[in-house]
Structures are given as structure tokens and as C-alpha cells.
Amino acid sequence: MNLALIDFQKEYVAELLTKLLKAKRNVREGDLEAVLLSAPTGSGKTVMMTAVAEHILFGAKDFEPEPEAVLLWLSDQPELNEQSRNRILSASSMLRAHQLVVVGPDFDRETLEGGKVYFLNTQKLGRDKNLTTKGDKRTWTMWETIRNTAKKLGGQFYVVIDEAHRGMNQGPIQERDAQTVMQKFLLGSPGELEPMPIVLGVTATPERFERLIGRSDRRMYKVLVDVDKVRNSGLLKDRLAVRIPEDDQPNDWSLLAAAVQRWKVMRDAWRDYCLAQQLEVVSPIMVIQVADGSGERLTATDLEIAVRTIESEVGALDDLDLAHAFMEEKEISTSGHRIRRLDASKISADPDVKFVFFKMALTTGWDCPRAEVMMSFRPAQDATYIAQLIGRMVRTPLARRIEGSETLNEVHLYLPYFDRENLDRVIQKLKGDPETVPATEVTLGSDLVELGLPPAPVVITEVDSGTVPSTTAAPSEPPVPAIPLAPSTTATSTEEPPADESAAPSLETSEAVTTAEVETAAELEPPAPSPLLAAHLAIHGLPTYTFSQGKKLPDFRRLLKFAQLLSILHGVDAEALPGVKKLVVDTLTAQRDALLISDADFKSALEGLAVITIKPIVVDHRTFEITAGEEESIEVTEQNVEDLFRQCKQRLSDDLCLAYLKQNHHDEEPHRAKLELYLLLQQASIWQALDTAAKDRLQSLKTKNMSAIRGLPSNKRQRYDEVWATARVPEAGYLELPDVVNLPVCKECSAYDKHLFQEADGKFRADFNGWEKPIINSEIPDCVAWLRNVPKKPWALCYPYRMGGEWKPGYPDFLVVRKDGDGLVVDILEPHAGNQADAWYKAQGLAEFADRHGTHFGRIEMERVDGTKITRLDFNDPSIRARGMTLANHQELDNLFRDAGVSS
Q1: Taking the model in full, what pTM does it have?
Q2: Where are the domains of the chain?
Q3: Which of 182, 471, 791, 900 could form a disulfide with 811 if both were Cys (CB 3.0 to 4.6 A apart)?
Q4: Which fold has domain 239-452?
Q5: Is 282 helix (H, G, I), strand (E, B) or coil?
């Protein structure tokens, strides 16, 4: 795959293949089978199906390759054929353009050619009779071609019914025609088609597909994608912010101007992020939905004013910046511009377009991850269509969550003709329709408040020409670590801090502009960072844990991923991957040697693989008496050996299998090493040995390279976080703290000073419970800054704890930054009610966190509040930590608070 599958997608692709194998076995017995992939919009259904197509044609673990297989991809809208083909072509590393065939009006073959994927629009089999009627230029109808292919291939002919976009912009006649055609594939049609043996449905709503096959006797296997896994994958924007006017006065052009301003914010944020990460710059698009027209008028929305409004915010536009996706196939002229027409499916790939006008076209056959802002001039009655459109917009441009930026994980919608009641209809549609709308949080824009670091201090530099202000701003990617952290004098950590942990601060400052009379600006002392900026830098990069909803991986698989990142993708450690390959081969070789000595069954099985025993049956042609002949042994053929070796490659990887073969090949027994490896990989003990060796190598490579990894751009560091997150036992990464966060408005809440992220008035507003409030009030007077550690936010510090045999994420309530000597130190504070069921589990988790990472922090506390009395347990105290790590029940935690707690 050119486009790497996300873990949850790999999981469901594997399940799909397993269900297909079961279906194929039943087809050989004459049964009719259906397999359903039901996944919410935005989950990557086409990408998953691309992987399935690759595995069918080229093989996968436990799935033999079928090079002559055919996939017939059915959709019910013409433009979807080309769009699906283009997606598969870009995602696949194995399927070539000539293997992806869109069936056109001149198509005429007896059978579909093996090894290809055909795309067929159902309208060509319905009212359009060109493909279904013989004539002077047609030898085979499409029905005959399909029937002949099914008869020839049987269980290697896969009919894919793509319902992922059905019904979004269709009338009842179109809907009925499409369903009639689809039923022919499932139920058969006398004189045209027998029921197809294997049908694979792809949909966001399984109910419709189930109804479609309800009248057949097919067995159906379901693969249902969990919406939470999609939500947590980063494929979709975290939040949709919707904005409506607060009063009844005319405001459409004002909201358009505000939407363009938001587009500018997104444009600049993407530029800064991509340049910092050394990525191709994402160019966001703003889509503007205009009202319908009448008569000769294309639209009731004045495009002249719309373009002028855009230019008033961004400056003069080039004609290439503008496009429309109206049904009318023509260019539109305004007084200053020509607005070109652009097909909906081509918008995302167009390198120049920035603003797109449309009516309804974008609700069909269109996915545009670059669409970051939408403005709609449609009336409130069009709530359903607007919801469907948003469903096409919330994909993330880089197919992942953007680390360290809430701004780039949002999409924005402006609705000037909606009030709160009508907006609620849109939001309910967005929340409740998995067919057209992804699982994205929907929030009214006025319910959010943007919090950030306070403005940078201004330093006045006196020069002869006057004064030049120089600012020290919060960097978009703070150096890690930038502020020396005072080590705890009480903690004894099992983790060595990175080698550069004590490095001096490295703060970027903007260079002052001076006149020629100033010899050099470098002589000026850079201003010290503001206290809050210094606190931000102190927190950024601290140890934290990332919990993944996806499948956990064995250490062996994680090690391979880790080594590939280090050696191939990022060039951090050129020796990592070769060393891992040698480790794997040496481990396998040592295990083989041990088994040959100690395990007679292994040795016997190895010898048995090299030969095939046959026992002839002799029939006397006169008496028809049957007698058994003598057993004969024949050597296994090279092709049989290669079949076994291919299975090894699917389980282990091509490179590792070839490396084993190179080290263990014997000229006198050319097949032996391949047979050894096949037999080894059938042993559970071998995989356990590989995992044990991998665990130690993972830790050593992590220790060796962590400083270099932390120096990589954040998008590359995120790849390593994914490796840590898939561990069966949680592993630490490092905290990515943004410069700006968005939190719910809390108008009636108390206002607090010194919070790291502040509103415009320098305050942070929150509503704390009875044990949180006295804790933070006791800390604010003496701290430099503090942070409300909001649970489950990507920037929240997290520690792991075990409860009921399962690892869970814990989020301490507060991080407090205070002075300690010449540097800053960060405290973890976790006020917790004594009667909560998870209290002692979390206390144990904090103690274990302190044992591993205590040197990075000052206090790591759990607190209890009783009236005005606060009792604290600091797990960075060795004796408290030791008892905390061995807690077994709630009473033992109570005893620990009684014996070692410090009260104030």
C-alpha cells in the first residue's frame, strides 16, 4: 500500500479476509454468500477495500493469491466510478492503472479479464440500454459478460456493491432503479443473470444492505467498524465549530467576511506547521454554498459582492483562486474575474483553487480534506443537505490528527440564515446520521473560548533612529527541553534522563531591525522569556503516556516498526534495522539448534516435510480385487517448498525470511533452510522467544536514540508515539503542548490567575469541585503558572494504572510550575476523594509513574481534603513510593495517608 493503513483499518481488513475465506468455502459447496463491511463515513472504506483487493490478487497471510480473480465494483452514481478508481490507484502500491477499468459504453467482452478491478455504474444496466442490448457493434451484452465471468471463476469473482454514497442526492426514481439493478446481482433475473456467488457490500448503514438481500437465502458475514476507533484514529477533525448570527439584522456578508478571516487563520497555521515539519504546505479551501437561481439567473446570491467581500479580506485574487461546481458547464464572469468550472471530484487535487462556489454538487461524489471553512447562503430548510455536505468536509488533510495544534484539528461552518432552533436540527443530523456524517464533535462557535499564552513582552531597544520594539513570542514548536528542570532530591528513578536534559535554555528571539548606525543587532541581549512562556517550555516534553484504542501489538512487531523509523524513514540510527534483522535471524537459528537437540518431534517433523509418502492402491482388472502396494517416498518438489516459504514471508516478512535463508542455506540440502523456517514459525515458543528478545532491544534502542527522536519535528515524533501506544504494557512518550487551546465557555465560573492558557482578560474560568478548589487555591500564590490538565485532551499529561486487570489512563487534575533554585520544576497534583472506587488503583499508578519518571518532576502528589484540612502524599518520596507501589486495597491507601500524609 502506498497509503499505510491505520491500526484499526488493518484489524478490519484482516477480519474481512477471514470472512471471505469462510464465504469461499461455502461457495465451493454451491451456497450463495454475502460479506458486509459496515463503517461510518470517514473511516476509509475505499482504502480498506483497496487492501482487500491487493490481498485477493497478490496474497496475504492465510489467503492464497488469486491472480486471475476479478472484482466488479458497482456504484449508483456516474462520478463515483472515476473517484473510486483514482482513490484505489493512489492508495495501492501493487495495482496498476491498466488493472483498474471503468466500464464505458463501448465495452464488449465475453468475460471480464482476470487480475483486474472493473468499475460499473448501475445506470448503465438500467435505463441506459447501450450495454444491455445487442446490436451491430455489440457481440456480448453486459449481463452475458457478467454471467460468463461468474460461471468461469466461481468463488474468485467478487461483486462489490458500494453503497457508501447512496441516496445523498437522488430522487425516488433513481433510488428505485439502482436498487432493482443491485437485486439482480443478489437474487438473479430470469433471462439475464443468475445470482452472483459472492457479493461484498460496502456501506455506512447495514440496514439497507440487509434489506436488499432479505429476500435471498444468502448467508451474510458482517464486519462492523467501531465508530470510537474511527473517532480516535485522527482521520477526522476533532471538532466542527458552527457559527450563527446572534440577532435578526442582515448579516450574511458580515459572516462571509468573518469566514474568510477564519480561512486566513487556517491558511497561515497550515503554512507555519508544514514549513516547521518540512512537509508540503497544505493549501486550505473555503467552500461557499450559494442559493438556487431562477430563470436566466444562475444563483440568487450576488457573486459580484461575494468576490469583492473575499478580496476585502485577502487582497486581490487571481482567477485561478476561484472556481464553481455548478451543474452549468461554463465559466462565469464577474466585473473583475472569470470563475472557472471545476468538477467536484477534482477540487481537492487542484493546486491553485482557494474559494469554491457551489449549490448542491458537493454533496455527491466529493471528499475534500482541504476544505477547512464553509459558508452557506442556503435557507434553514436545507438542514439535511448542509449536514450531508459537512460529512464530506471533516477529513483531515494529512489523514492524521495534528499534534500540538487544536486550530488545525477543527473545521468551521458559518450559517447566516439559521437561528438556534434551526441549528439544532443540523447538529442533530450531524450527530445521528452515520451514513453521511462522520463521528466528529459538533459545537456552537459561541460555546467555545480560545485560550492562549499572553502576548509576548515588548522590549524597547534605543537606537539613533528611534525605538524598535522586539518581541519574544512563543515558538510554534518549543525546544525540548528548553528550561532546566531541577531534579528531585528524594526520587530514585529507574529511567535515565536524556543526555541533554541539563542543557541551557535555547530561546528563539526575533531580530531587532536597526539603522546603519547600529553595527550589529547580535550585540543586543535577547529578552528573557515571560514567566508563562518559561512555564510552557518547562511542561512541554515531559514524560506522558498515550493510550490507543487500536489493537495492541507484540513487542516483535513493534520493534520492526521502530527500527524502520530509525533507519529508513528518519535516518536517526542507520544500524538499528540491520541489527534487528541480525537479532531475529540469530534468535531463530539458536531456537532451531536447541529444538534439533532436545525435541525429537521437531526433528521428525522437519524430515517429514522434505518427503511425501504415498501408498499405491493396486486393482486387479480381472477380479477387481483391491490390494495395497508398498509405501513409497518421494522428495517434495521445489514448487511445494516455495509455497511453504511464501507462507513464511507472509508471517515474518520478505526481508527477514531472506536473511534467515542467507545465513542458513546449505548447498547440499537447498530446501532445508526454507523447510526449517516454515516449521519454526508454527511453534508458539518461537514467537515467545522473538518477543523476549525484541523487548530488550526495544528498550536499548529507545534509550540510545531518545534524545535524537526528541529533536525531530513533531510530526515525525508522533510516529514514535504510535509505537509506544500499541504496547501491551503502556510505554512513555513525551508531552506535546500547544500554544492555543479551545475549551467550553464557562461564563458563570470563578476566574483564576496565572493559568498557562488565558482568555483575553488574562483569566482562566473553571468550575472546580469541593476537593479541587482548595488545592489549586493553595498553590496559586506561590507558583509561576499552573495548568488544568483536561482529561483525554491530546495535550493532557497521562499516567497508566491497572484496574480489574486492564490498563487505564489517569489524568492528574493539575500541573503546577514553581521556582526551584535557578530553574523551574513541575509538580503533579491529583486531589482525589477518599471514597472513590478507583482511588487506590490510581495511587498505585502514580507511585509507579514516580518510580519511572520522578526525576523529571518535583512533587507527584495525591491529596485528600477534609473540610479545611489538606493531606498530601508525595510519591516522589522513596518510602511513600515504595508503599504506594504495593497497594492492594482501599484500606492500605487509607493507612498510607494516615501514616505518611503531610497535613496543612
Answers
A1: 0.73
A2: 7-231, 239-452, 555-725, 732-903
A3: 791
A4: Rossmann fold (3.40.50)
A5: coil
